[in-house]
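Sample entry (176 residues):
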Amino acid sequence: MLIYLAMIDAPEDRSKFERIYEKYKNLMFYRARQILGNDRDAEDAVHEAFVRVANHIEKISDPECPKTRALVVIMVERISINEYNRKKRRGSLPLMEELLPGEDRMEVLEEGSAVARAIAALPPRYQELILLKHWQGYSDREIAALLGMTQGNVARTLQRAKEKLRQALKDEGVEV
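Predicted structure, serialized as tokens:
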């Protein structure tokens, strides 16, 4: 919360923000989690919403009125929906869904860190591309720009990385 308070100059606005934060943080997280489906993205959405609240705190008259509640919920909903749509447009399938379709995916997750060990066994370039694509959600075009590669090269290298990952998972005894 200190980060947000550092953005606010007036002591009365800081007090107002603290009351808003304490009163609505759980509600905002709950709503973001409903839309985004995971805690990490929900936390990011709530953070962004609180940054916006801090930037416009002087416009909020009463922290505990229904109008304020509606404002913060609408903010976090809009941010969450935008994030959801952005990820959907990127078409970033989680790596586990791509490699292990169906129910086998849950069994692998319960086995511990077999996937993490398999990724760690890959060459650094393959690790980097898999993490950028499937954990960070970058598109092939964005990865190409970040790493100074062509988009076609990114796609081919990712395909090779996935094949090596499948083989490493098989070597770990994971059915792929």
